[in-house]
Write a structure and sequence with these properties.
mainly alpha, DNA-bd_dom_put_sf, two-stranded antiparallel ribbon, 217 residues, 8 helices, 44% helix
């Protein structure tokens, strides 16, 4: 792989790093990015050696990424080879989870499933409800004709679901005073102001403008 341009999957397999780690290092400027886009994008031929050198410095020497970035700027090819050799016998990173919860409700359901007890040897769980039957009865609080759970994950799920169905609030019209200071800077104040307050803000804006633009008065 040293003479060819590897893909992200090939880099991950050869280095023992997860693709998310490699992408993060590319985003932070530690590793050159791919030469093209898409699943089959190719990285520079020396990307693996640089990747192993970064891992060797991080996992063997305990260097933070900021210090590794400085080292990469001055390291010779021989020094990079030595750093890469430190990663030769490192175990692979933990694999990414197959899927992440898509919402808070999914996360809570996953927690509840992990908290449900497993039956001990010789103990049978109650049979699941038949078709057309509801869940086992609880001791819920009643609101009108609907039974609502009072606590636990079910209650939190219900509150989250109700909050998600609330219509968006209407934004009230508000009065703003905006005073330009520089082409991309302005002083913005919300609320109604009288003439004296506006004059004070204008003087503040002039002072800020003088400081930013280096004017002297």
């Amino acid at each position: 792989m040293t003479d060819t341009e590897p893909t992200l999957a090939e880099l991950a397999a050869a280095s023992g790093l997860e693709p998310r780690t490699i992408r993060s290092w590319v985003a932070q400027g530690l590793l050159p990015g791919p030469r093209s886009r898409g699943p089959g994008a190719r990285y520079p031929a020396d990307a693996l050696k640089r990747l192993l050198a970064i891992r060797g410095m991080r996992d063997r020497l305990g260097m933070p990424l900021a210090a590794i970035r400085q080292e990469l700027l001055v390291a010779t090819p021989e020094q990079l080879r030595v750093h890469a050799g430190r990663a030769a016998d490192l175990v692979p990173e933990p694999r990414e989870l197959a899927s992440a919860p898509s919402s808070a409700l999914d996360y809570l359901r996953g927690l509840r499933e992990r908290r449900e007890p497993t039956p001990a040897a010789g103990v049978a769980l109650p049979p699941p409800p038949r078709a057309g039957e509801g869940p086992p009865p609880r001791s819920p609080q009643r609101q009108g004709s609907l039974a609502l759970p009072t606590a636990g994950f079910e209650a939190l799920e219900l509150h989250l679901a109700q909050a998600r169905r609330e219509p968006p609030r209407k934004v009230r019209a508000e009065e703003w005073l905006r005073i330009p200071i520089a082409p991309d800077v302005e002083l913005a104040v919300r609320g109604r102001l009288d003439a004296e307050q506006r004059a004070r803000l204008e003087r503040c804006a002039d002072l800020i403008r003088d400081i930013l633009l280096g004017s002297s008065s």
